[in-house]
């Protein structure tokens, strides 16, 4: 479970520890305030 930002401009980042090898990753928002919205960026690396 990852916590996100509390406003529209703050950037929040999280590392996956340990790193994972995956073809697909699903994000399931657990809670939101007013209307739901989500922006996600994933960065990969070679040789996992």
TrEMBL record:
<feature type="domain" description="F5/8 type C">
    <location>
        <begin position="1"/>
        <end position="45"/>
    </location>
</feature>
<protein>
    <submittedName>
        <fullName>Discoidin, CUB and LCCL domain-containing protein 1</fullName>
    </submittedName>
</protein>
<dbReference type="InterPro" id="IPR008979">
    <property type="entry name" value="Galactose-bd-like_sf"/>
</dbReference>
<dbReference type="Pfam" id="PF00754">
    <property type="entry name" value="F5_F8_type_C"/>
</dbReference>
<dbReference type="InterPro" id="IPR000421">
    <property type="entry name" value="FA58C"/>
</dbReference>
